[in-house]
Amino acid sequence: MSLLGFTSSLISFTPPPPSLTPHLPSLSCLSTRIRSPLLLSVRNLDYKCESQASGLYMEPVKESVELNRNLYANIEPYETGFLKVSDLHSIYYEQSGNPSGHPVVFLHGGPGGGTAPSNRRFFDPEFYRIILFDQRGAGKSTPHACLEENTTWDLITDIEKLREHLKIPEWQVFGGSWGSTLALAYSQSHPEKVTGLVLRGIFLLRKKEIDWFYEGGAAAIFPDAWESFRDLIPENERGCFIDAYSKRLNSDDLETQYAAARAWTKWEMMTTHLLPNEENIKRGDDDDFSLAFARIENHYFVNKGFFPSESFLLENVDKIKHINTTIVQVCVTFISTVILRALLGKQVIFSDK
Fold it and tell me: GO MF terms on file (predicted)?
């Protein structure tokens, strides 16, 4: 989920070099270039190595700004597989890029959105060991669209199981929209395993955010798309669209589930970009994708993300203040980002793209 969604076309990133450099596959004591996973308004920094008893130290010596609006070239994974994370669930994962590179795990949105081959293109394949996985019930993970044993805390456990399975001591975490929510929750649970955070399209899963998007606020910006979403629900049930859709997405009748899933998914896909993206909108016609996306996303929203309090992520932000973090956000939806930045004291890159 993205509050206005305009953040799905990627934007910019200034890397946090000190957290990355200890994990480079090879280093010389002359200089090395720290590479960003993103390519728009990227700041590259040159570092020189100094050997110290406590380990490698990287001193910044030069700063330059490079602009490139292209993502990296398409690549294929060098490994794919399924990891059994419980008696019920198995998650799909893949690795691409440099097998000896700096590990980065990509956390997809939704919940329920699954990964796509294009997600690999955010990262420099020569520098990064790129790990993608489909969260429980999403994408290629099984069982499909399953809500049982599917909570934020289950997903955090899965991320740790995947890290251990791949024998990765620690990694950079990249998440957009719901992926940013999960990235914050994971890093707060396992801060010692996170070398850096890149958060795009911040979503803190607070009631005010969900209500704005699903209870009529966004309708003022996308009135035509809202009509289809609204009209599936009878007038006497429109007091809470989240609950009304939950009833249908969990119906005993599969066709009722599909109809609700298509309407839910099309509403979100039609609002993912400020200008319509036909390829995205067509995903709402894919019943397999829509069912997982809508059922899982609605399940998490009904249960308030399974957090013990509405501001849980903000209340626990002190646990990750030491982690180098970059936040990328469009200017029109930056309130959550400004709050988070104030608490984290981190850099925020705003974009109107």
Answer: aminopeptidase activity
The region of weakest confidence among 9-23, 56-70, 123-137, 252-266 is 9-23
Phi, psi of 152 (to 5 degrees): -55, -40
Classify 8 as helix, strand or coil.
helix
pLDDT score of 27: 23
Give the residue from 2, 330, 313, 317 showing the smallest Cα distance to 177.
2
* 347-351: strand order across its sheet: 79-84, 90-97, 128-133, 102-107, 171-176, 194-200, 325-330, 347-351
Taking 50 as the threshold, does the pLDDT of residue 136 lie above it? yes
Cis amide prior to 111 (ω within 30 degrees): yes
Quick one: tokens of 51? 């050997």
Please, what is the average pLDDT of the chain? Answer: 81
Nearest to 67 by CA among 7, 11, 121: 11
Neighbouring C-beta atoms of residue 9, cutoff 10 Å? 16
- Going by C-alpha positions, the residue among 197, 193, 195 that lies closest to residue 184 is 197
Q: What digits encode the pLDDT tens for the residues 5-42?
A: 333 333 333 344 433 433 322 222 222 223 344 433 22
**Which helix (DSSP H) or strand (DSSP E) does residue 91 occupy?**
strand 90-97
Instruction: Mention every residue, 6+ apart, whose C-beta is less than 8 A from residue 193.
Output: 160, 163, 169, 170, 171
Residue 60 has pLDDT above 60, yes or no: no
CA angle at 290 for the pair 139 and 263, rounded to the nearest 5°: 160
Phi, psi (deg, nearest 5) at residue 340? -65, -40
Q: Residues with Cβ < 8 Å from 267, sequence gap 6 or more?
A: 225, 226, 228, 229
User: What one-character DSSP code corresponds to residue 332?
Assistant: G
pLDDT, residue 165, reads 98
Q: pLDDT at position 184, please?
A: 97
CA separation for the pair 150, 262 (Å, rounded) = 21
For residue 201, give every residue at least 6 positions away whose Cβ sits within 8 Å of its Cβ, in sequence order, or none.
2, 3, 5, 7, 8, 109, 176, 177, 180, 328, 329, 330, 333
- CA dist 188 and 184 (Å) reads 6
Q: Does residue 204 surpass a pLDDT of 90?
A: yes
Query: Is-contact 5 275, C-beta < 8 A?
Result: no
